[in-house]
Protein backbone atom coordinates (compact mmCIF):
# COMPACT_ATOMS: atom_id res chain seq x y z
CA UNK A 1 0.00 0.00 0.00
CA UNK A 2 1.42 3.36 -1.06
CA UNK A 3 1.42 6.40 1.18
CA UNK A 4 -0.97 9.17 0.12
CA UNK A 5 -1.56 12.76 1.12
CA UNK A 6 -4.93 14.32 0.35
CA UNK A 7 -5.81 17.96 1.03
CA UNK A 8 -9.55 18.75 1.06
CA UNK A 9 -10.93 21.95 2.65
CA UNK A 10 -12.58 21.38 6.05
CA UNK A 11 -15.74 23.05 4.73
CA UNK A 12 -16.99 25.01 1.74
CA UNK A 13 -19.97 27.18 0.96
CA UNK A 14 -22.61 25.90 -1.43
CA UNK A 15 -21.49 26.67 -5.00
CA UNK A 16 -17.93 27.54 -3.94
CA UNK A 17 -15.02 26.40 -6.13
CA UNK A 18 -12.58 24.39 -4.00
CA UNK A 19 -9.09 23.10 -4.73
CA UNK A 20 -8.31 19.44 -4.08
CA UNK A 21 -4.67 18.30 -3.83
CA UNK A 22 -3.39 14.72 -3.91
CA UNK A 23 0.03 13.09 -3.71
CA UNK A 24 0.89 9.40 -3.83
CA UNK A 25 4.25 7.84 -3.05
CA UNK A 26 5.15 5.70 -6.08
CA UNK A 27 8.51 5.24 -7.90
CA UNK A 28 7.02 5.45 -11.44
CA UNK A 29 9.61 3.26 -13.18
CA UNK A 30 9.38 3.99 -16.95
CA UNK A 31 10.61 0.67 -18.29
CA UNK A 32 13.37 2.40 -20.27
CA UNK A 33 16.17 2.64 -17.66
CA UNK A 34 18.78 -0.02 -17.01
CA UNK A 35 19.23 -1.37 -13.50
CA UNK A 36 22.52 -1.97 -11.69
CA UNK A 37 22.94 -5.23 -13.61
CA UNK A 38 22.51 -3.47 -16.98
CA UNK A 39 19.14 -5.03 -17.76
CA UNK A 40 16.11 -2.82 -18.41
CA UNK A 41 13.93 -2.44 -15.33
CA UNK A 42 10.30 -3.46 -15.87
CA UNK A 43 7.75 -0.67 -16.26
CA UNK A 44 5.81 0.15 -13.08
CA UNK A 45 3.73 3.30 -13.35
CA UNK A 46 0.38 4.63 -12.19
CA UNK A 47 -1.71 4.79 -15.35
CA UNK A 48 -4.97 6.33 -14.14
CA UNK A 49 -6.33 8.57 -11.39
CA UNK A 50 -10.03 9.13 -10.76
CA UNK A 51 -11.93 11.24 -8.24
CA UNK A 52 -15.62 10.62 -7.54
CA UNK A 53 -17.71 13.20 -5.66
CA UNK A 54 -20.71 11.49 -4.09
CA UNK A 55 -20.45 8.72 -6.70
CA UNK A 56 -20.05 11.00 -9.75
CA UNK A 57 -16.75 11.33 -11.64
CA UNK A 58 -15.46 14.90 -11.26
CA UNK A 59 -11.83 14.42 -12.31
CA UNK A 60 -9.94 11.77 -14.27
CA UNK A 61 -6.35 11.70 -15.52
CA UNK A 62 -4.34 9.25 -17.59
CA UNK A 63 -0.67 9.09 -16.61
CA UNK A 64 2.22 8.03 -18.82
CA UNK A 65 5.89 7.01 -18.33
CA UNK A 66 7.04 10.65 -18.47
CA UNK A 67 5.17 11.38 -15.22
CA UNK A 68 7.49 12.08 -12.29
CA UNK A 69 7.79 9.79 -9.30
CA UNK A 70 5.31 10.49 -6.50
CA UNK A 71 2.64 12.07 -8.75
CA UNK A 72 1.07 15.25 -7.36
CA UNK A 73 -2.31 16.14 -8.84
CA UNK A 74 -4.40 19.21 -8.08
CA UNK A 75 -7.79 20.15 -9.47
CA UNK A 76 -10.86 22.23 -8.64
CA UNK A 77 -14.51 21.35 -8.28
CA UNK A 78 -17.72 23.12 -7.34
CA UNK A 79 -18.96 22.18 -3.86
CA UNK A 80 -22.66 21.44 -4.25
CA UNK A 81 -23.45 19.13 -1.34
CA UNK A 82 -21.81 17.39 1.60
CA UNK A 83 -20.50 14.06 0.40
CA UNK A 84 -17.59 11.68 0.10
CA UNK A 85 -14.69 12.15 -2.30
CA UNK A 86 -13.28 8.83 -3.47
CA UNK A 87 -9.77 8.89 -4.95
CA UNK A 88 -8.55 5.86 -6.93
CA UNK A 89 -5.10 5.32 -8.42
CA UNK A 90 -4.59 2.38 -10.83
CA UNK A 91 -1.38 1.18 -12.38
CA UNK A 92 0.79 -1.57 -13.77
CA UNK A 93 1.08 -4.99 -12.12
CA UNK A 94 -2.45 -4.80 -10.70
CA UNK A 95 -1.74 -1.73 -8.54
CA UNK A 96 -4.91 -0.15 -7.16
CA UNK A 97 -5.30 2.17 -4.20
CA UNK A 98 -8.44 3.93 -3.04
CA UNK A 99 -8.74 6.61 -0.38
CA UNK A 100 -11.73 8.68 0.78
CA UNK A 101 -12.32 12.09 2.32
CA UNK A 102 -15.47 14.06 3.08
CA UNK A 103 -16.26 17.49 1.66
CA UNK A 104 -18.61 19.32 4.03
CA UNK A 105 -20.80 21.99 2.43
CA UNK A 106 -22.28 24.62 4.72
Automatic annotation (TrEMBL):
<dbReference type="InterPro" id="IPR014880">
    <property type="entry name" value="SoxZ_dom"/>
</dbReference>
<dbReference type="Pfam" id="PF08770">
    <property type="entry name" value="SoxZ"/>
</dbReference>
<dbReference type="InterPro" id="IPR013783">
    <property type="entry name" value="Ig-like_fold"/>
</dbReference>
<feature type="domain" description="Sulphur oxidation protein SoxZ">
    <location>
        <begin position="9"/>
        <end position="101"/>
    </location>
</feature>
<dbReference type="InterPro" id="IPR030995">
    <property type="entry name" value="SoxZ"/>
</dbReference>
<dbReference type="InterPro" id="IPR014756">
    <property type="entry name" value="Ig_E-set"/>
</dbReference>
<protein>
    <submittedName>
        <fullName>Sulfur-oxidizing protein SoxZ</fullName>
    </submittedName>
</protein>
